[in-house]
């Protein structure tokens, strides 16, 4: 029974990154693109991963139930998927050790639990090594559509801008509003503030380029956001705009910016870095 328990532990190949002193994000290889949108909608590489990990667990499960024949079938499935996957991304060939997958099959054939434990550990290490070095970057790059392709019309200058450029103009008009308010330059503050409000409203047009559900947009740019923008407009068009009142509403708007960045900015930053 002890041996079986040992096996359980050893075969549980973690796909999650193990605790580390540092995390490195390596640019995913060119040829991996073939297995992800827009080139393919089938996620062939990822589905092989699921097949391998299911097969790994199936061996474990069947051995624990004493069903060595089924365990062998799954071990062979694992080996075949492993060999097939090793040919999918030439740049990653070195991560795979097909002979270890073959050894694993032989170990299951031998019906010797110790051998299976050893073989599964050695094979499992090849999985973990690649995951540690590549999984996070792959998720960030391939599981998020790119903001690079998204263009937004600037409601102030009537030009088409890329997301990053739009964001810069948006945030500059917000800064200008603050600067002129601090300087007591009401007229300029009004102009900058109105530009900011229009650009902040213009952000909405972006959401539907990826999201089909209105609820995603509402979760961040909902009624509170719209109300805060309207209030900024109203206060600014009054005679003696109150700085404090405007800052109060700006804080609310700013928290929407932060929310959206929390969800979208990190993948966008990683993608941008690798696009160069
Ligand atoms: C989709 C949700 C979203 C919302 C809402 C949003 N941003 Fe952004 N923001 C992004 C993304 C994505 C990027 C990265 C764009 C890029 O660099 O291609 C970004 C980048 C930025 C940048 C860095 C630009 C650069 O590259 O130098 C600033 C500054 C910024 N946003 C300000 C704001 C402000 C201010 C608001 C709110 C008024 C806001 N953002 C609202 C998604 C959002
Ligand atoms: C050459 C690199 C490499 C090797 C070797 C490798 N993997 Fe992966 N694996 C990845 C990458 C990259 C991802 C992330 C793919 C994605 O999210 O689209 C992944 C994802 C997974 C996932 C899915 C995790 C999740 O929920 O997103 C599982 C399960 C998995 N691998 C199991 C295995 C097993 C079991 C082995 C060994 C028998 C293995 N992998 C070998 C690179 C590798
Ligand atoms: C380039 C594509 C893209 C754009 C543009 C975009 N998003 Fe997203 N957003 C995603 C992806 C991808 C996710 C992760 C969830 C998923 O895979 O569907 C996500 C997740 C979210 C989530 C959490 C989960 C959900 O689906 O509701 C919210 C909320 C959200 N986005 C709001 C926004 C808002 C607001 C805007 C416009 C200002 C926006 N997004 C623009 C791609 C995008």
Q: What series of H and E elements makes up the topology?
A: HHHHHEEHHHHHH
Bin the helical content. Answer: 55-70%
Which structural class best describes the helix and strand composition? Answer: mainly alpha
**Which sheet architecture does the biggest sheet show?**
2 strands, antiparallel
Shape: elongated
Question: Which small molecules are bound?
Answer: heme C
| Total domain count | 2
Provide the spatial order of strands within the biggest beta sheet. Answer: 1-2
Report strand %.
under 5%
Put the structure in a nutshell.
With 276 residues, the chain is an all-alpha fold. 69% of the residues lie in helices and 2% in strands.
Write structural notes for this entry:
69% of the residues lie in helices and 2% in strands. By secondary structure, it is mainly alpha-helical. The chain folds into two domains: 2-142; 151-275. The protein has a two-stranded antiparallel ribbon with strand order 1-2. 21% of the residues are buried. The mean pLDDT is 93. The structure holds heme C (3 copies).
Name the descriptors:
276 residues, mainly alpha, 2 domains, two-stranded antiparallel ribbon, 11 helices, 2 strands, binds heme C
Write the layout of secondary structure elements.
Blueprint: H1 2-11, H2 44-64, H3 68-86, H4 98-110, H5 113-142, E1 151-153, E2 160-162, H6 163-183, H7 186-202, H8 204-207, H9 214-220, H10 223-237, H11 243-275
Antiparallel strand pairs: 1-2
């Amino acid at each position: 029974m002890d041996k079986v328990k040992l096996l359980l532990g050893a075969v549980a190949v973690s796909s999650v990154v193990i605790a580390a002193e540092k995390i490195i994000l390596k640019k995913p290889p060119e040829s991996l693109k073939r297995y992800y949108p827009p080139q393919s909608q089938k996620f062939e590489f990822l589905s092989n991963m699921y097949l391998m990990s299911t097969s790994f667990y199936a061996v474990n499960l069947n051995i624990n139930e004493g069903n060595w024949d089924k365990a062998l079938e799954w071990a062979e499935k694992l080996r075949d998927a492993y060999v097939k996957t090793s040919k999918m991304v030439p740049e990653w060939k070195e991560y795979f050790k097909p002979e270890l997958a073959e050894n694993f099959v032989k170990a299951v054939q031998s019906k010797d639990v110790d051998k299976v434990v050893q073989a599964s550990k050695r094979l499992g290490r090849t999985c973990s090594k690649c995951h540690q070095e590549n999984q996070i970057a792959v998720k960030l790059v391939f599981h998020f559509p790119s903001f690079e392709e998204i263009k937004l019309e600037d409601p102030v200058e009537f030009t088409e801008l890329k997301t990053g450029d739009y964001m810069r103009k948006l945030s500059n008009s917000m800064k200008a509003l603050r600067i002129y308010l601090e300087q007591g330059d009401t007229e300029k503050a009004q102009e900058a503030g109105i530009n900011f409000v229009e650009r902040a409203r213009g952000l909405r047009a972006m959401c539907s380029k990826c999201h089909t559900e209105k609820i995603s947009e509402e979760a961040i740019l909902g009624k509170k956001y719209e109300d805060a923008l309207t209030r900024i407009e109203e206060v600014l068009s009054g005679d003696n705009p109150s700085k404090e009142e405007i800052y109060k509403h700006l804080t609310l708007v700013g928290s929407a910016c932060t929310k959206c960045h929390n969800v979208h900015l990190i993948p966008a930053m990683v993608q941008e870095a690798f696009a160069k």
